Each structure stands twice: as structure tokens, then as C-alpha cells.
Amino acid sequence: MGLFTKNYAKPGKGITKEEAARRSYFDIFGRHFSDLVKLNMLFILSNVLFIAAATVLFKVYFSDVRGILSVFQSGQRIVLPLLPFVPFMFMGPFTAGFTYVLRNWSRQEHAFLFSDYFEHSWKNVKQGLCVSVFGTLVTYLLLNAFIFYLQSGMPTFFVLFVAALAAILLLSMSFYIFPMMVTFDMKLREIVKNAWIFAMAKLPQNIFYLAVIVLVHGLLLWYVPIVWTILMLFILISWTGFTVNYYAWHVIDKHMMTQVSEAEEEPEEDVFTDTI
């Protein structure tokens, strides 16, 4: 946990402990509901080219679902095409701007919807791209590994268990990567390392929040897909991001911000001495 003791904090006005204690998930969500709708639409519009490209490519490559399933059931080796996943590699910078706005609202700070969104998308363009490229490639490789091991004769239950565990850990890491990116001046490997620590240390809580999000999306998509589509256009993306950021900020504030504050109160020679 040595990384937590460095002075990585980016400048910005915070809130008092009393104000933080009074914050409520539903209170903040209600007060910012109209802004969340605007942010949801802004995120979609800024990524519209990538979303459209991914939609078209997935339809082209995966239009014949029955044919794919028949090949899968026959035991033939399947390697998923990479091209349909490529558009997702470019969504990282806008995800950083999206996260910055949501992080501010989660900790009851003001955020200028449009200017802060685009400013912090640009400020984090390099790390955002690295994260989205890496995350997309890992997802692609894991999906192919999942298919390969299912066809290899390994017990289905074991393959499903390992796949579910890997998905939970990776999604749990994603809870923290972008909030840390827009909050601290840290190298990407340090962000990933701390995200891994939080994914493991807070695994029960991560699973709970992940289950809530998956349940909401899954039930809507299964029973009323048209409603899910409409909600995705207007609020569901922002709701998902807000829920993640509200929880992630609580963890980051407790385990990183408090240590940064304590470090700033120590003599400078102790604060900036790197012992790693």
C-alpha cells in the first residue's frame, strides 16, 4: 500500500467531513437527475461514431447467430473476430470526462457539465486510450479463452466458474481505474495496481454493487428490451456510472484521500521521500 502515501492528489476544492457524512445516494441522484440525463446524452453523442461502428460490425460478423451456435456445438474451433471490438478501444478519453463529472457530483462538488466533460476527456486522453485499448483486448482474449476451454472438454461448471471470477475481478478493477485517473497524478501501472488491491480487498462490496447493476440491466433487457434501449439513451448509462462512482469514491476517499491529507501535514522530507 506504499503507493497510497505519495502526494498524488490533483488540485481541486473538497468538502468537509460533515458534508460528506450527510450525503445520500438517492438525494444526490434526485438533485442531479436532469443533469444525469444531459450527461447520458452527451456521452452517447460524443461516442456516437464508435457506437455506430461497433453496432454495424457486430451485425455483420454475428448476424447469423444460429450458424455460429451450430459451429460451436459441432466442436469446431471458433476464434472471435477482433474488428467488432475495435471501436470500444477509442472510448476511454470520453469515459474519463464522464467519470470526472460523476465523481464531482458523488462527492457533492460542482461540475460544469460540458466544459469539465471535454476538458478532462482531453487531459486524460493518453491514459484513457491506454485503458480502453487494454480493457478491450483483455475482454476479447478472455472471451476466446472461454470458448476454447468450453470446447476442450473441461468441465463446464469449472470453466463457467473461472470465467465468472475473472469477469468479476476485471469489472471490480474498472470501478476504481477511471476515478483514480481523474483524481490523482499517478502513472497508469500504479492506478492498475491500486485498482487490483481494491478489487481484492473490497470483493464482497464490489460483488454487491456489480450484482445490482447486472440485475437492473439484465431484467430490463430480458423482459422489456425496448424499455432498456430507451433508458440507455436517456439515463441508464449515467445511472450505472453514478452508482459506480458513488461507491468507488467512498472507498478511495477512505483509503487514499485520508492518507494524502495526513502526508501533507507531515514535514516535506517525509512526504516526498520515495522508498520503493
Protein architecture, described:
There is one protein chain. 77% of the residues lie in helices and 0% in strands. The protein is mainly α. The protein has one domain. The longest helix has 30 residues, at 236-265. The protein is globular, with a radius of gyration of 20 Å.
In terms of topology, how is this protein built?
Elements: H1 17-22, H2 25-31, H3 33-46, H4 48-62, H5 65-74, H6 92-106, H7 113-123, H8 125-151, H9 156-183, H10 188-201, H11 203-223, H12 225-234, H13 236-265, H14 268-271
Helix pairs in contact: 3-13, 6-7, 6-8, 6-9, 6-13, 8-9, 9-10, 9-11, 9-13, 11-12
Name a few traits of the molecule.
mainly alpha, 0% strand, disordered N terminus, 77% helix
The average pLDDT score comes to: 86
Classify the oligomer: single chain
Calculate Rg over CA atoms: 20 Å
H-E string? HHHHHHHHHHHHHH
Uncertain residue ranges: 1-5, 269-276
Give the gist of this structure:
Helix 8 (125-151) packs antiparallel against helix 9 (156-183) and helix 9 (156-183) packs across helix 10.
